[in-house]
Amino acid sequence: MALPSHLPWPWGSQRARIAFAISNALEVSLPECESLPGVMPRGPLPQTLSVQSLDMHITENKQAHNTSMYKNSSLIVRRNKEFLIDILFDRPFDETQDTVQLEFMIGSVPDENKGTYITVSFGSVKTESSWRGRLLEKQGNSIRVGITPDVQSIIGRFSTFAVVVNETGKRRTEKNSATDFYVLFNPWDPSDQVYMPNEAERQEYVMNDVGTIYNGEINDISFRSWNYGQFEEGVLDACLFILDSGKMPLMYRGNATEVARQASALMNSIDDNGVLAGNWTGDYSSGTAPTAWTGSAEILLKYASKGGAPVCFAQCWVFAGTLNTFFRALGIPARVITNYCSAHDNGGNIKANIMLNPDGSVNRKKTRDSIWNYHCWNEVFMKRFDLPDQYSGWQVADCTPQETSDGLYRCGPTSVKCIKEGDLSYSFDSRFVFAEVNSDVVFHQFDKYGNSKIVHVDTTYVGQLIVTKRPNTNGYIDITLNYKYPKGSAEDKRVMQLAERRGIPKRKYSPLPDAGVQIDIKAETIKIGENFTLTMNIKNQTSQTSTVSLTVTGCAMYYTGLTSSTFKLENYSSTVDAWQTTPVTMKVQAAEYMSFLVEQSNLLFVVHGQVNETGKSVSAMRVINLRPPELMMKVTGVPQVGRDLMVSVSFQNPYNFTLKNVQLRLDGAGLTPTKVKSYDQVAPGGSVQYTDTITPYSPGRKVLIGCLDCIPLSQITNQLEINVVN
Fold first, then answer.
1. Least buried of 106, 306, 319, 424, by fewest C-beta within 10 Å?
2. Of 398, 423, 667, 709, which is the active-site residue?
3. Burial profile 622-659: b = 16 or more Cβ within 10 angstroms, e = fewer
4. Domain range enclosing 547
């Protein structure tokens, strides 16, 4: 029930109004004394018992609740797990005669029916409550009680009041921020929605405050460390501020599905002034380049300190890294996923269309679909009460703004198992995620009259590899089979048929006859500024000699698959004997591509050709991710809490052009707040030498992350593991 109607506004019944408390920050002002209904004392209430103080046992409770790592002076507990409070009175407590209540409130409109007002009673008069309480011990004028928040409790910061109840009324303690406490999701408890049974996975997906985000491209996987920093000072409050800024009703904040759904919208700024402003233009002069960030804590604290002004700028891994921090801070197991060759299906037809000119070169204006080198999203682990049991577990949540869902730019949560089984009728956004990992790449070629026809279909290019960080190591796990069955298998065909019955458009093209010839594009690992050779191995899988005419288009490309400009176009012809493979090589000079490079330095090569004897088409694509120069880092000193360490960072410009607007970032959870150093320019052959002192403030395995970012180079990173002792 709601709070008693005899209490003054805003406590009483609101009569014909429905109030949804939407802010954890707003609090109600409580009267110190209350008269019971029908009892009007002529003077002050008798002070037969008085509360002197409350002891929240912060250190002991935090250890028991796995929250000691939070740099927060308040108590932090988890749902459905008991925590201790000592209540000190002015005399011994007599449980046969005395009654004391603990009131726990969140928001400005406390309501028992909405879970924002909880009362737990001890002594002679008992009241029903969704939270459990036990009188554990009496000693002198003090009692120790155990409080267990409900397993579906709202997540957030609660205020605590002790209320002495007698025959005429109540006397309440004053508001005291020292007795405020936070309630989080509890992945250790089997009854909690986010329960995760494996301890090693809990340590990785809830407690690890640094991670690895994979990038690069399918043939040259690279990575960068990311400081999640969910335990850093102010980060938990910043995460609650995000929910307040998004006006998410408090009563829904105990449901992990609702929290994930709202967070995927609130992390981007398009609809609701969310945390991060996305930017893929290459112009970041009014903010920080996405490639320059080293972690989430800096972003979240900046958003909160600016009162909810979006932080500039982000791309997919920044969105995913920041959302991962949000989930872990609230106690929801979460991890960052990288999908290599990820389709962005603008047409909603599970096809990524590549348009070719009559000469076989790529028509950049007509090619609207894109295949990202990689795309990062999040998975969160939870039970889905709104889905059949088999679809609980890992759920996709993607806050990178790509398409709208229910009117907002967001995606998920959607069950990974739903994606794998093609059961796409369940919430939320399963069709979009299914397309990201299952789209066909369809090559269309225009004739000289502007008519197009399908000349090649690749059913294996998209979603070739899906990875995430392996627990307790720096390597990755291949989780591709979590999302899809092996291509061409009986299960894969069954899934595609079910997906079509669930609303995926049927493919309107008939399978093309096999050309009997395949092209495999090879290249070595290449650094920016190097000349290299592209090798196209033409495999003749027929019993006849084949002559193949090829057109090779080389484009500078953003990691999202969009091309910026064409820098090379060449034609080749090769005769290949039956059942043989013949290599065709193309020399690529640095002078040809350097002036066209865009951020992350990707080159796309599209090869399209025709078998002269049969007229059948062959096509292939390959992305080359050019590696940046190295960033050198060194730490000297003994890694100990409270003891200074000397950090040296160095970089040399190996190019014959000047690097401008150079920004160097140093970051490490438990080691140092984010440090930023800027340089106007670094001349050809010039160097950056940066030395600073850091003082570790938390023991254990830590990672110091360095990142140098500038025009035209980006994402020059390095990291050092440091074991800090007490």
1. 306
2. 398
3. bbbbbebbebebeeeeebeeeeebebebebebebeeeb
4. 517-625
Residue 124 lies in a domain: yes
Alpha helix locations (H) across 511-660?
A: 590-593
Task: Tell me the per-residue pLDDT of 26-49, one tens digit each, with 9 for 90 and over.
Answer: 887 788 888 776 655 555 544 579
Cis peptide before 428 (omega within 30 of 0): yes
CA 336 to chain centre: 6
Looking at the fold, whether 54 and 113 belong to one and the same domain comes out as yes
Catalytic residue among 312, 316, 418, 555: 316
Q: What are phi and psi of 330, to 5 degrees?
A: -85, -5
Query: Where are any strands of DSSP class E within 433-493?
Result: 440-446, 452-458, 465-469, 476-478
DSSP-assigned letters across all residues of 562-573? -EEEEEEEEEEE
Catalytic site includes residue 514 = no
Domain's final residue, options 590, 605, 625: 625
* Encoded amino acid at 172, one letter: R
By residue count, the chain amounts to 726
Peptide bond into 413 cis (omega under 30): yes
Overall number of domains in the chain: 4
Would you state the structure tokens that stand for residue 677, as one six-digit string?
A: 């150093």
Nearest to 678, CA basis, from 662, 665, 692, 659: 662
Per-residue model confidence (pLDDT) at position 19: 52
Report the candidate in 186, 160, 213, 180 with the shortest Cα–Cα distance to residue 51: 160
Catalytic: which of 65, 375, 456, 608? Answer: 375
Query: Are residue 535 and residue 620 in the same domain, yes or no?
Result: yes
Q: Is 444 annotated in the active site?
A: no
Regions in the chain scoring below 50 on pLDDT: 1-18, 45-46
Q: For this structure, is 398 an active site residue?
A: yes
pLDDT tens digits along 207-244: 999 999 999 999 899 999 999 999 999 999 999 999 99
At 101 the three-state DSSP class reads strand
Q: Is residue 446 part of a domain?
A: no
CATH number, domain of 157, equals 2.60.40.10
395 and 479 fall within a common domain:
yes
Among candidate residues 625, 648, 663, the one where a domain is terminated:
625
Pairing between β-strand 465-469 and β-strand 334-344 as defined by DSSP bridges: antiparallel
Question: Partners of 352 in the beta sheet?
Answer: 441
Residue 329's identity, in one-letter code, is A
Q: Is the peptide bond before 10 cis (omega within 30 degrees of 0)?
A: yes
d(CA 213, CA 219): 16
Tokens of 35: 């008269």
- Asked if residue 347 is part of any domain, the answer here is no
Residues 59 and 169 in one domain: yes
For the record, the structure tokens of 371 come out as 């295949």
State the Cα–Cα distance between residues 644 and 692, nearest whole angstrom.
10
Residue 349 maps to a domain? no
As given in the structure block, the two tokens for residue 109 are 């409109």
Long-range contacts of 585-590 (CB under 8 A, 24+ apart): 585/533, 585/534, 585/535, 585/536, 586/533, 586/534, 586/536, 586/552, 587/531, 587/533, 588/531, 588/532, 588/533, 588/534, 588/554, 589/531, 590/529, 590/530, 590/531
